[in-house]
Amino acid sequence: MRKPMVAGNWKMNKTIDESRHLVTDLVVGMKNLGQIDRVLCPPFTALWAVREIIRGTDIGLGAQNMFWEKSGAYTGEISPVMLSEVCQYVIIGHSERRQYFGETDETVNNKIKAALNHELTPIICIGESLEENQAGITADVINRQVRVGLAGLGPEDGSRLVIAYEPIWAIGTGLAATPENANDIHKNVVRVGLAELYGDDIAQSIRILYGGSVKPDNANNFFSQTDIDGALVGGASLKASSFLDIIKAAV
Fold first, then answer.
1. Which of the residues 94, 96, 103, 186 is marked catalytic?
2. Does 175 have pLDDT greater than 90?
3. Would you say 9 and 227 are in contact if contact means Cβ atoms under 8 Å apart?
């Protein structure tokens, strides 16, 4: 059994004070929703404030990115050593990082290895663009991202991963893949690729989340699918009521 997970990626939103207000509401609303893993991923500036509010709960905390070196002359970067004092999770390879900041499958691979080496669970984002989708090469793109992004990781590493399939054309657009299509990608592309790397038993144990305009009114349809194990939620995680409704749908 794969325990469902719902993670909220706040992106570049919420001041420290706004984060405190949001998390205070979420902690109250999540009290009886512990059947699934819930993870909050605020901006770096709010990580410590959020950590203090969720301390003593079973709510997980994640960062939105990190660099792969432990320390050094990397102005503006955050290391896995720094995050491991605060977080349990880190989002790696989000399409916005790839699009705006030049991240590649190879740099994603470096970051995944660094996260695992410092006891952080990576939430690894993969997904195709609208042009790639329309060209019919979604499977090729996903297979490359899985193969190169996870290169050099053994079965013992594979069991510690979380994958998030986010079709780029569905992120922040209001568009979403159909639940059936997303499930087909999860089951017949992503999980098959994981099985080629780690064997079927481990592949079947790895959670694959869906991301891309997940909202309270469509969450049930996604979570009812066999191979969709939760969601990486963007805009809908910025409001307590909508994020809680998505979590309830997953429960």
1. 94
2. no
3. no
Percent of the chain topping pLDDT 90: 92
H/E element holding 141? helix 138-149
Q: Is 166 a catalytic residue?
A: yes
Domains and CATH numbers, the chain: 5-250 (3.20.20.70)
Residue listed under structure tokens 């790639």: 132
Please state, in angstroms and rounded to a whole number, the distance separating the CA atoms of residues 29 and 22.
11
Cα separation, 110 vs 218, whole angstroms: 34
CA distances from 196 to 99, 125, 202 (A): 28, 19, 10
| Active site (annotated) includes residue 21 | no
Residue 151 makes CB contacts below 8 A (sequence gap 6+) with 109
Tell me the pTM: 0.96
- Please give the Cα distance from 83 to 80 (Å, whole number): 5
Q: How far apart are CA 16 and CA 22, in angstroms?
A: 10
Who's near 40: CB < 8 A, 6+ residues apart?
7, 8, 10, 23, 26, 50, 54, 59, 60, 61, 62, 237
Which one from 106, 166, 180, 186 is the annotated catalytic residue?
Answer: 166
- In the chain, % of residues over pLDDT 70: 100
How far, rounded to the nearest angstrom, does the alpha carbon of residue 174 sit from its chain's CA centroid? Answer: 19
For the stretch 49-65, pLDDT in tens is 999 999 999 999 999 99
